[in-house]
Amino acid sequence: MKTLEVDLGNRSYPMYIGTDLIDQTNLFGACEKATSIYIISNTTVAPLYAERLTKTLNTFGKPVRTIALPDGESYKDWKNLQLIFDDLLKFGADRQTMLVALGGGVIGDMTGFAAASFMRGIRFIQVPTTLLAQVDSSVGGKTGINHPLGKNMIGAFHQPAAVIADLNTLKTLPPRELSAGLAEIVKHGAIADAQFLDWIEANATSLLACDTEAMSHAVLRSCEIKSAVVSADERDGGIRATLNFGHTFGHAIEAGMGYGEWLHGEAVGCGMVLGADLSERLNYISEADVKRLTNIIQSMNLPITPPKFGAERYMELMQVDKKTEGGQIRYVVLEKIGKAQIKSVPDEQAIETLKATGAA
């Protein structure tokens, strides 16, 4: 097992990365003072792991309940968030109740938002069971739900008490879900560590095969990168926005297609292709860099051709983005492989990218 400390002063917390961690009671020590424990999961993951996790949590001698929500990005909304509150209130949860998010990014985000909101804030633990959640959404305290007009536009910053990433849960992932998580790993190399991107490129086959040793390194390095950025900019006021490379275009794809049609990682992977093209148009990276990054993304079995909504529709969708300021869309672009920045770009240049990549 490897341990990483997310350094946020009095809100710091450990992240554990290893195998069979769901069964290790000592990792859930934050539950010791809880009055009750609620496992928040979904109808796909709960049958696989909720019983094992319940057995582990029963060690603390507190009531343990499981709430299984519908599975999918399309259910990340007010209606399904309310199901969590309904159960907490019905069964007498209080300010010492602990929530445990058992699932992917949707469950982690919704559980975190419920924890941030219930009685104005209770504690929660992340147990991410998808690769995308292990390397991205479980770390950093961003929680929330989607709105029909924009992804993750309603939420709160609320840090977990711990993140427990059991690599064995990745063995049950469908190949498409695994590839979606690999998109975020590629992103971390592209924005922050050129040598890591070299390693990803060389180990694509092992990563796609979910080799434990390769995955352990990839998850740890990705979380080291994200943790360092979050520690420097917890509230997303500056450098943290660079973690959204590929996301402005990607969120537009998700919203335009309808949430759940493209997985988040698929949209981000394709969004990075567009982001790389835009970076080249700004004379930051070379055509060879764009081709290389595109090839790496494609090698992870991710789409590289965006849906053709047309320039006007893309620009409309991208206006509803957390990085937009004063009506000006701000993009994450690559200064070079391994370094990113946030930049306001004339609409004309973004439209050129949309046309060149087949989106318009």
Biggest pleated-sheet summary:
4 strands, parallel
Which stretches of 5+ consecutive residues score pLDDT under 50? Answer: none
Helix content: 40-55%
| Arithmetic mean of pLDDT | 96
Question: Could you tell me the strand content as a percent range?
Answer: 15-25%
The oligomeric state is single chain
Neighbour order of strands in the largest sheet: 4-3-5-6
Radius of gyration: 20 Å
Number of helices: 13
Please write the string of helix (H) and strand (E) elements: EEEHEHEHEHEEEHHHHHHHHEEH
| Overall shape | globular
Characterization of the model:
This protein has 360 residues and is of the alpha/beta class. Helix content is 44%, strand content 18%. The chain is built from 13 helices and 11 strands. The strands form 4 sheets. A 4-stranded parallel β-sheet has the order 4-3-5-6, with helices on both faces. Strand 1 (2-6) and strand 2 form a beta hairpin. Helix 4 packs parallel to helix 5.
